[in-house]
Structure formats: structure tokens, C-alpha cells
Inverse folding.
């Protein structure tokens, strides 16, 4: 990929990441053009700013918890603990937390 020489390393990294993702869905030349354009937009929008990108731990846990809730049959606590590499107690806690969050009010 031809990154403009004036790109700071972080923008070059972003352009490479975008291109790799876009190539999964678009032809190479289109992916490269779009990756560079999006990177330039990010640079213009956030230039001079410090951006904190949070870890996705909370999002991944929420997705896991929803998957556990969906897979729960009412009596498969041990199976879920094994599948998700958690303790049975953690499964009970997750199910209780998700159940509470789904209750109205």
C-alpha cells in the first residue's frame, strides 16, 4: 500500500488496518482508495487531539453474557461453565445479572 510520506505512523497504521478490513469486501484498488480517504478524514477530524480508545473488554463480556443467556436451557449451568471456561458460580451470577437487566422498570 502506498501511504503518503507525510503520514504520521499512527495514521499509516490506521490506513493499513482499514485496507485489510476493506479488502475482505471490496476489490484491492477500491479498498486502498477508501482506506486512504477514511484515514485522511480521521486525520482532519481529530488532528491535534489525543484520542483514548478504550479496551473492548466490557463489550466482549456483554456479548459473552448475552450468548450465555441465549444458550441457557434452565439446567445446563455446568455445561455453560465448561463451554465458556468459567465457574458454575460465575454462570449463576451472569444469568442473574442478565435476568435483572431484562426486567422492566
Amino acid at each position: 500500500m502506498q501511504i503518503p510520506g507525510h503520514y504520521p505512523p499512527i495514521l499509516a497504521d490506521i490506513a493499513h488496518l482499514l485496507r485489510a478490513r476493506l479488502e475482505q469486501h471490496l476489490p484491492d484498488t477500491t479498498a486502498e482508495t477508501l482506506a486512504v480517504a477514511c484515514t485522511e478524514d480521521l486525520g482532519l477530524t481529530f488532528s491535534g487531539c489525543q484520542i483514548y480508545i478504550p479496551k473492548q473488554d466490557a463489550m466482549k463480556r456483554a456479548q459473552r453474557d448475552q450468548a450465555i443467556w441465549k444458550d441457557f436451557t434452565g439446567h445446563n449451568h455446568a455445561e455453560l461453565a465448561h463451554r465458556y471456561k468459567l465457574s458454575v458460580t460465575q454462570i449463576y451470577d451472569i444469568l442473574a445479572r442478565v435476568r435483572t437487566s431484562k426486567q422492566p422498570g
About this structure: Residues 57-100 form a domain with the Arc Repressor Mutant, subunit A fold (CATH 1.10.10.60).
